[in-house]
């Protein structure tokens, strides 16, 4: 593994640390700031303006004015499209800088950010740029959309929220996660440069219980969208209900099964299951965090999964060839280490990893547990880290029952070449996304969201337009000639 000791200087400068309200970068009303940290070292990258209730209120007033007085919701669909296309072009132009900022603040491998995530951001904006001119009959924007996003994919979550809301003519107050405030500010400035009128997209950095809760309870926010943990999702839904009953879209946690069937090509299944869990340092709401393996291939699968985890390249995410960077922060680091201890205490067998990696920052060794039982905490809770749990199964009925025995229902992976097996599992699994012989395939056009406590509603695709449009019935008597 690559040493994590000497962090590379990121090839980008931090340009924006203030709040973006009404088209201008401004300090918070209180003048307060908070540090955003480099997960490679725990050192401060920058001090960022800390938005609180008063700042959320200022942003909502700006968004309200931009909605009520226009021009955004009244603009011709063609003109709105053109601004969004220019926005996507500018993202593409600054691709490498944006990727560097994302890696610096989040810790994800730069190669992945630069070649997959930021291009995907531009694609998502472009996909929604094409939507304003869909015939919408009597569907009309909600007004001011409040959006609260997490830290694991700061810009993809930005795009899933901002793209459809803007395309439908809403105005926005977006609250970024306190761990990763930098990239959304940079990108929002590009939206202004593309011609987005002031007040249409406001970005407030700050913490959940202050800035986030103020947005969820604000009486002049017409619609709320949230991505984050299930526990926080419940709070946000309650705040929305208690204030003005604003409708809420929720994308929450998961404990997704990845099912390796007896006919599977073991080498391919090992690689896919490894990717399904370890991608993005294991910090994915849809991570394949329960690897169910048929007993016939279990031993071979286990040996190879262990070897793969030991080969995983951990280190400075700016270094070429690094597959896994640090976890986002100390809190997540401690939470994951707690789950690793819990796995050991509950009698699971540690096959690989199990400890921190290096001496600095929030790196964790790729960890694999075998002999995992359904009632162990590591098989039930969302760990959100590089910890793979491998479970054995005998037949399809059994694996369906066990895979569904969870409060979550976000995603599932199926690995088989047998069409009947794939069909049986696809019908029986209670999950919002089923990936067959693949995993984490995201496209702007494919809807995403959860069953059960993994959320409410769907994002991406044309499904997300429904989150930002409401039906208006217009009736008038016809004049008979
Ligand atoms: P995580 O545990 O992964 O940090 P959270 O669900 O707590 O996930 O955070 C996701 C987003 O929700 C972040 O932007 C965070 O600031 C925000 N948030 C946290 N607590 C609250 C709250 N009480 N009200 C509104 N937003 C919140």
Automatic annotation (TrEMBL):
<feature type="domain" description="Aldehyde dehydrogenase">
    <location>
        <begin position="25"/>
        <end position="474"/>
    </location>
</feature>
<dbReference type="InterPro" id="IPR016163">
    <property type="entry name" value="Ald_DH_C"/>
</dbReference>
<protein>
    <recommendedName>
        <fullName>Aldehyde dehydrogenase domain-containing protein</fullName>
    </recommendedName>
</protein>
<dbReference type="GO" id="GO:0004029">
    <property type="term" value="F:aldehyde dehydrogenase (NAD+) activity"/>
</dbReference>
<feature type="active site">
    <location>
        <position position="251"/>
    </location>
</feature>
<dbReference type="GO" id="GO:0019752">
    <property type="term" value="P:carboxylic acid metabolic process"/>
</dbReference>
<dbReference type="Pfam" id="PF00171">
    <property type="entry name" value="Aldedh"/>
</dbReference>
<dbReference type="GO" id="GO:0005739">
    <property type="term" value="C:mitochondrion"/>
</dbReference>
<keyword id="KW-0560">Oxidoreductase</keyword>
<comment type="similarity">
    <text>Belongs to the aldehyde dehydrogenase family.</text>
</comment>
<keyword id="KW-0520">NAD</keyword>
<dbReference type="InterPro" id="IPR015590">
    <property type="entry name" value="Aldehyde_DH_dom"/>
</dbReference>
<dbReference type="InterPro" id="IPR016161">
    <property type="entry name" value="Ald_DH/histidinol_DH"/>
</dbReference>
<dbReference type="InterPro" id="IPR016162">
    <property type="entry name" value="Ald_DH_N"/>
</dbReference>
<dbReference type="InterPro" id="IPR016160">
    <property type="entry name" value="Ald_DH_CS_CYS"/>
</dbReference>
<dbReference type="InterPro" id="IPR029510">
    <property type="entry name" value="Ald_DH_CS_GLU"/>
</dbReference>
């Amino acid at each position: 593994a690559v040493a994590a000791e000497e962090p590379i200087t990121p090839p980008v400068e931090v340009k924006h640390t203030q709040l973006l309200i009404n088209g201008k970068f401004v300090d918070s009303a209180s003048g307060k700031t908070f540090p955003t940290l480099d997960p490679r070292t725990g050192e401060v990258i920058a001090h960022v303006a800390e938005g609180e209730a008063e700042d959320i209120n200022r942003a909502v007033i700006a968004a309200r004015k931009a909605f009520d007085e226009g021009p955004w919701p009244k603009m011709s669909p063609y003109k709105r499209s053109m601004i969004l296309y220019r926005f996507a072009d500018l993202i593409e132009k600054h691709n490498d800088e944006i990727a560097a900022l994302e890696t610096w603040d989040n810790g994800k491998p730069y190669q992945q950010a630069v070649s997959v995530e930021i291009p995907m951001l531009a694609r998502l904006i472009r996909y929604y740029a094409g939507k304003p001119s869909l015939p919408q009959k009597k569907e009309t924007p909600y007004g001011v959309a409040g959006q609260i996003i997490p830290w694991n994919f700061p810009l993809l979550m930005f795009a899933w929220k901002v793209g459809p809301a803007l395309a439908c003519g809403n105005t926005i107050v977006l609250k970024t996660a306190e761990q990763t405030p930098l990239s959304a500010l940079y990108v929002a400035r590009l939206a202004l440069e593309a011609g987005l009128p002031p007040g249409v997209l406001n970005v407030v950095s700050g913490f959940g219980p202050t800035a986030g809760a103020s947005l969820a309870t604000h009486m002049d926010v017409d619609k709320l969208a949230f991505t984050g943990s299930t526990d926080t999702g419940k709070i946000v839904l309650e705040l929305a209900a208690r204030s003005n009953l604003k409708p809420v879209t929720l994308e929450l946690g998961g404990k997704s099964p990845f099912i390796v069937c007896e006919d599977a090509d073991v080498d391919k299944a090992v690689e896919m299951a490894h990717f399904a869990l370890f991608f993005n340092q294991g910090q994915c709401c849809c991570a394949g965090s329960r690897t169910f393996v048929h007993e016939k291939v279990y031993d071979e699968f286990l040996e190879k999964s262990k070897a793969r985890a030991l080969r995983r390249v951990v280190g400075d995410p700016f270094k070429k060839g690094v597959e896994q960077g640090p976890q986002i922060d100390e809190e997540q680091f401690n939470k994951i280490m707690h789950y690793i201890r819990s796995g050991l205490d509950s009698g699971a067998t540690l096959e690989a990893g199990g400890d921190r990696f290096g001496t600095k920052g929030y790196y964790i060794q790729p960890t694999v547990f075998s002999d995992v039982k359904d009632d162990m905490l590591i098989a039930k809770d969302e760990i959100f880290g590089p910890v793979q749990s491998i479970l054995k199964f005998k037949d399809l009925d059994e694996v369906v029952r066990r895979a569904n025995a969870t409060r979550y229902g976000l995603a599932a992976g199926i690995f088989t070449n047998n069409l009947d097996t794939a069909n049986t599992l696809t019908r029986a699994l209670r999950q919002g996304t089923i990936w067959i012989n693949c995993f984490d395939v995201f496209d702007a056009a494919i809807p995403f969201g959860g069953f059960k406590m993994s959320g409410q509603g769907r994002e991406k695709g044309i499904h997300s337009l429904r989150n930002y449009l409401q039906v208006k019935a217009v009736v008038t008597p016809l004049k008979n000639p």
